[in-house]
Amino acid sequence: MPIDYSKWGKIEVSDDEDDTHPNIDTPSLFRWRHQARVERMAEQEKQKKDLENEKKDINIHITELKAKLEDTTLDDTQKDEYQKKLDAFLKQLNDFKDKEKKFEEMLAKQPWNVDTISTEKFSKSRINKKNKDSYKPKTPEDAYENMQSVLAKYKKEIETYKKCNGISEVSNCLRTYPEIVCEEVANYLTLEALNHAIMEEEPDLVRIATNVQYMQYIIQLAGELKIPPNTYVMVNRFFDKVMQTNEAFKRDHAIQLDEFLNKLRHRGKVKRDEALQEIEAEEKAERIKNSPKGIDPIEVLESLPEEMRICFEERDIEKLQRVATTMDPEVFKHHFQRCKDSGLWVTNEDDSNEGDEGAESGMKEE
């Protein structure tokens, strides 16, 4: 049976560019056409509602008259009167049906437009609600407690994994203890590797950092596959299908491991320098606290003229006395006073001299 395309023959589009007039502004023409179509549709909708209301009124009268005719107390005159009215309304109903049919035919002949070319049969919206249990935010305290719980639970297995050296030992260990493959253990091992970097223990650093990388790969792959990482199936999948067959992965692993080690070494140096600075600051604070006038004796020693500094470094009082006779008296007095204020030169309380001649005076050992 051939398909009838005639219903698509006339479609009204208000901005049809093929139908324009050279003397009329095209956008204005499109706007007027659209406005005329909207007004025409509004008028047709009003006619439709008027017809529906008229039909409703006729049916109401017919129903009322039929109910009255069923009343047995009516005399013949009243029955005839009601029957005549009923016949009149029934005739109006028949005439109305013809009017309704003509109106529907008129609508059917109207060209389709964007509002009438199709009708929505059903509408349905779906909202995917996030599972409330799928994400549980953790405070730093909760995360720390969770890590401590995992480390305590798998302490023996983690220690075994830390000692693994080489892909064979790592593979056997994780196949035996797949339950330790998790972010908490990976983070703990990273901190262990950092501690070795701080202490400049290179063999231990390389071994643990390599083991961390393998565990992180499994966790990452499990996330992509949307399966738990701490399962025997996931560990087997990684070592059997990825490590043994994927040459590109092996090359990337070497590059990423080298980058990871460099980051750990750099961070270890920063931590080591910070620790040394902290120790030096504590020692300096202690020296200042113990000095007579709150002056760091090391800073004073480093600021002394070379000949005086050598005397204090060698703890040679006689040489210092000779320097006192050859150096400008004011310069020597200034520096020697700072030595006493900082505690480099210790003078007895009953010593009335400047310090270089006191029998009970002397240089403090730093």
UniProtKB/TrEMBL annotation:
Protein name: Hsp90 chaperone protein kinase-targeting subunit
Molecular function, one GO term: protein kinase binding
Transmembrane residue ranges: none
InterPro entries found in the cross-reference section: Cdc37, Cdc37_C, Cdc37_Hsp90-bd, Cdc37_Hsp90-bd_sf, Cdc37_N_dom
SUPFAM superfamilies assigned to the protein according to its UniProt record, in alphabetical order: Hsp90 co-chaperone CDC37
Domain of life, per lineage: Eukaryota
A cellular component annotation (GO) from this entry: cytoplasm
Coiled-coil residues: 34-99
Domain Cdc37 N-terminal intervals: 2-125
Record-annotated Cdc37 Hsp90 binding domain positions: 118-283
GO BP annotation list: protein folding; protein stabilization
Boundaries of every Cdc37 C-terminal domain copy: 289-366
Spans annotated as Disordered: 1-27, 344-366
Keywords: Chaperone, Coiled coil, Cytoplasm
A Pfam family reported for this protein in Swiss-Prot or TrEMBL: CDC37_M
Compositional bias segments (type: Acidic residues): 348-359
Subcellular location: Cytoplasm
Family: Belongs to the CDC37 family.
Naturally occurring in which organism (per UniProt): Strongyloides stercoralis
